Amino acid sequence: MSGNYQLIAKLLYGSGLRLIECLRLRVKDVDFAQHQIIVRDGKGRKDRITVLPDSLIEPLQKYLRRVEMLHRKDLDDGYGAVYLPDALEQK
Known about the structure:
- By secondary structure, this protein is mainly alpha-helical.
- The protein has helices at residues 3-15, 19-23, 54-76, 86-89; strands at 30-31, 36-39, 48-51.
């Protein structure tokens, strides 16, 4: 196992996340300074805080930088925008 799959497996094991919790993670849910992950709407529809292992901080930050670069490139190339009907745009 390597790449993104290995990172996901390590995150599941190291932080005690359930698969669906890992898939629902957002960037703002990861607190690198406090070494914590905020799990929102987990089992029982409750929020909880779990540990972010030291060994995953650098690989996770590297992954997020790579994804951000891809996103910026997509935006520069004219992709990444979402069409909103006029009624939704006005809200």
